[in-house]
Design brief:
About 5% of the residues lie in helices and about 50% in strands. It has one helix and 32 strands.
Length: about 375
C-alpha cells in the first residue's frame, strides 16, 4: 500500500511540475517564468531617474520590485552610485544642481550647484570627487565631496552628455552630443587634454574593463565607435539600432550593450548586444518603447534597461538573451545605476526629499552632515 501511495505521489508531483508548479512546505506554488519571473540571482538595488516624473525609483534586484520612490528633484536626467555604494548622486537638469543621497536611509546629504543643465554625473574611484557634464554650458563641474563645493570648471566640447572614468581613474572621457567628439579630461590636472573625432552626436561612453578601449554611441549615425585609449584614435565603427543612447560594457568584458531609443514619434525598442572580441552585433533584443539607459550588475548576468517612452525597466537575462521581467517606474525613466548594497530598512513607499528652495535662480551648497 505504501508503494502504491508513493507512485501516486510521484505521478502527482510530475503533473504539478508539468503545469508549472513546485511543492514548497507541502503547498503547490507556481513557478515564475519568462517576463513574469519575480526572483533573480542578483543582489542589490537598481536606481532609476524618472526625468519627467521628478523622482528616483529604488528597485530590489532580487525580487524586481520597487522598494521606494524619492521625489523632489526636478528633471533628474541621470544618477550614479558612488564606489563605496553608500551614496547616490543625482543631477537636476531643471534646476542645475547635484544632490547626494544616503543609499540606505534615503536621507539627503547635501546639494551642490553645477553649470547649466547638468546631464550626467560620475564619482571618482577614490570617492573624493564628482564630475557633472553641463549640457548648456559646454563645461564639466568638478565637485569636492568632503566640502560639497564646486572646485573647478573645465571647458569641453559642444553639449557634453555621458561621461565615465577610466578603470585606472586617470581620465574622464565624455561624449559631446551637439558635436562630433569625445573630450578627455586629466583628473590630476583637472583640465581637458584632448578631443577625439568619432562621428555625429556621440551620446555616451563605456570602457572595456582593462581600459584599453572606450566605446561611444554615435546617435546621429546609428552606430557605435571603438576608440584606442593609448593612441586616442578611432579604431572602427559598426551599425546598431536607430538612435543609440547609453552604452555599458559587462563587467566580464564579454559584451557591449547599446540602448537604441529612436525618437518620441518613432521609438526604437531594442538593445544591441555586441561581442567585444569580434566587435560584431550578435543579438538585437526587444526591450520596450524607447530603450535609453542601461546598466549591468557585477556578475554580468543581468542587464537593466530604462524604456523612456514605456515608463518601465526591462530586466535582460544575458545567459538566456531574453527579457525576464518588466518593472513599472515613474514618467520618462532615463538614467539608471546599480548598487551592490541592498536596502535593508523598510522605507515609506514615497519619500519627499528636503531640497533647498531656489533664490533668484540660484542654489547655495548644502551639506547635511
Amino acid at each position: 500500500m505504501r508503494k502504491r501511495t508513493l507512485i501516486i505521489s510521484i505521478v502527482g508531483l510530475m503533473a504539478l511540475a508539468g503545469l508549472g508548479f513546485v511543492i514548497i512546505n507541502g503547498t503547490p506554488a507556481k513557478i515564475a517564468t519568462g517576463e513574469n519571473s519575480s526572483l533573480s540571482t542578483a543582489q542589490g538595488t537598481i536606481w532609476v531617474a524618472n526625468e519627467d516624473g521628478g523622482s528616483v525609483t529604488a528597485i530590489d534586484a532580487r525580487t524586481n520590485k520597487v522598494v521606494t520612490t524619492l521625489s523632489g528633484i526636478a528633471g533628474p536626467h541621470n544618477l550614479q552610485i558612488a564606489p563605496d555604494q553608500r551614496s547616490l548622486w543625482v543631477v537636476s537638469g531643471e534646476n542645475s544642481f547635484a544632490a547626494e543621497i544616503d543609499s540606505q536611509t534615503m536621507a539627503l546629504r547635501g546639494t551642490v550647484p553645477t553649470g547649466m543643465t547638468p546631464a550626467h554625473i560620475v564619482v571618482s574611484l577614490d570617492g573624493r570627487t564628482a564630475y557633472t557634464t553641463n549640457g548648456d554650458a559646454n563645461t564639466v563641474s568638478v565637485i569636492d565631496i568632503e566640502s560639497m563645493n564646486s572646485v573647478a570648471t573645465i571647458g569641453v566640447g559642444a553639449g557634453p552628455h555621458g561621461l565615465r572614468p577610466s578603470p585606472d581613474g586617470k581620465w574622464i572621457y565624455l561624449a559631446n552630443v551637439k558635436g562630433t567628439t569625445l573630450s578627455v579630461i586629466d583628473t590630476a590636472k583637472r583640465k581637458k587634454v584632448s578631443d577625439i573625432e568619432v562621428g555625429k552626436s556621440p551620446a555616451q561612453v563605456g570602457f572595456s574593463p582593462d581600459g584599453r578601449y572606450v566605446y561611444a554611441s554615435i546617435n546621429g549615425e546609428n552606430a557605435v565607435a571603438k576608440v584606442n585609449v593609448a593612441s586616442r584614435t578611432l579604431v572602427e565603427k559598426i551599425t546598431v539600432g536607430v538612435g543609440p543612447i547609453q552604452v555599458f560594457v559587462t563587467p566580464d568584458g564579454k559584451y557591449l550593450l547599446v540602448a537604441n531609443q529612436g525618437t518620441a514619434a518613432q521609438p526604437s525598442k531594442t538593445v544591441s548586444v555586441i561581442d567585444t572580441a569580434t566587435f560584431k552585433v550578435v543579438q538585437n533584443i526587444t526591450t520596450g518603447m524607447g530603450a535609453h539607459g542601461v546598466v549591468v550588475e557585477p556578475s554580468s548576468r543581468y542587464a537593466y534597461i530604462t524604456n523612456i517612452y514605456g515608463n518601465d525597466v526591462a530586466v535582460l537575462d544575458l545567459s538566456q538573451m531574453k527579457i525576464v521581467a518588466r518593472i513599472p517606474v515613474g514618467s520618462k525613466p532615463n538614467g539608471i545605476t546599480f548598487s551592490t548594497s541592498t536596502v535593508t530598512t523598510s522605507p515609506a513607499p514615497l519619500i519627499e526629499l528636503p531640497i533647498p528652495k531656489m533664490t533668484n535662480g540660484n542654489m547655495n551648497s548644502m551639506n547635511m552632515e
